[in-house]
Amino acid sequence: MNSGHSKLTDWGLEHISIENHYTILDVGCGGGRTINKLAAIATQGKVYGVDYSEESVTATKRTNARWIDLGRVEIRHGSVSQLPFPDATFDLVTAVETHFWWPNLPADMRELSRVLKPSGMAIFIAEVYKGANTAVSKLAEKYASRSGMTLLSVDEHRELFTNAGYSKVQIIEERRKGWICAIGRKPAPNP
Q1: pLDDT band (50, 70, 90) for residue 190
Q2: In angstroms, rounded to a whole number, what is the distance separating the alpha carbons of residues 101 and 98?
Q3: In this structure, are strands 179-185 and 90-96 parallel, antiparallel, or unpaired?
Q4: Dihedral through CA 61, CA 80, CA 174, CA 127, nearest 10?
Q5: How far is 107 from 35, CA to CA, in rounded Å?
Q6: What are residue 125's phi and psi, to 5 degrees?
Q7: The pLDDT of residue 2
Q8: CA Rg value for the chain
Q9: Three-class SS of 61-101
């Protein structure tokens, strides 16, 4: 999973600006490659990872042992539906190839918003989505109901972010590859 998603992750992260002091959460951290990339960018910040799978937590810790030893990365076992972090902790929340497995997308989007700081950003990066004209996406669509995936179209990604209260929502596609990137900001409170 690390090498297979690396170029996709790089492409998605190119669409946002990550400050070196950011506190970042990667939801569904899988094998830990995204955590490694984020820690290399946020050189004065801290990167956290959370995954529902104990095996993924172990793999991520192994991949990022150096960052963990330096106190720059922390990995936790947990669910996107009940993140083990206080309110308004993160400048950025990333989710690479994972949001289509979440148990309750609307509620889980609100949970992301809870842990984001005001003006914080959430980004989803995926290589499959409903309506993409690639063999991988068509296969995923065909078996989505059997596999438990919730695939969203471009418009449904936009609605998901908007309905959860995010602002400045952007949806970016790489049509040739069937990649999608969805970005939204948690609004800052009015003074």
Answers
A1: confident
A2: 6
A3: unpaired
A4: 70
A5: 24
A6: -130, 130
A7: 44
A8: 16
A9: HHHCHHHHHCCCEEEEECECCECCCCCCCEEEEEEECCHHH
